[in-house]
Write a structure and sequence with these properties.
This protein has 122 residues and is α/β, with parallel strands linked by helices. The protein has one domain: Rossmann fold, CATH 3.40.50. Helix content is 47%, strand content 17%. It has five helices and six strands. Strands 2-1-5-6 form a four-stranded mixed beta sheet. It has a two-stranded parallel sheet with strand order 3-4. Helix 3 packs across helix 4. The radius of gyration is 13 Å and the shape is globular.
Length: 122
């Protein structure tokens, strides 16, 4: 499962907040702060527990040119910035589901598959 959430408000650019396999480098302090900030905004009632779980995870970093090529294709196809399409491409290559709070991107990319809205995720 690959997750992403909007870090700048609804309908705006989204940033990844959690990914079991992530383009974010493990140990990246900036990424950790972003993860905590977005979780706190999206689901404040579970923020502390979620941050504990995230801290305990061993994040595997994916570095694959095919993932980048898929992300570039999605970015061009849907006129969307590469940062978000990286998470979708990762889900496609891992045969996973990209869970996103970005409704605008979801509406553009749902036909590609491997994507679900955070509001629909259980």
């Amino acid at each position: 499962m690959v997750f992403s959430g909007s870090s700048r408000g609804a309908g705006r650019r989204s940033g990844g907040f959690f990914a079991k396999a992530s383009p974010i480098r493990s140990g990246d302090a900036g990424a950790a702060r972003t993860l905590a900030a977005v979780i706190t905004r999206v689901r404040p009632e579970i923020a502390e527990l979620a941050i504990d779980y995230l801290s305990a995870m061993e994040v595997k970093v994916q570095q694959d040119a095919d993932i980048l090529k898929t992300a570039a294709r999605l970015s061009q196809q849907f006129s969307h910035h590469l940062f978000d399409t990286l998470y979708h491409a990762l889900a496609i290559h891992l045969n996973a589901v990209f869970v996103s709070a970005d409704e605008k991107y979801y509406r553009k990319a749902e036909t590609e598959g491997y994507i679900q809205l955070l509001s629909d995720w259980r």
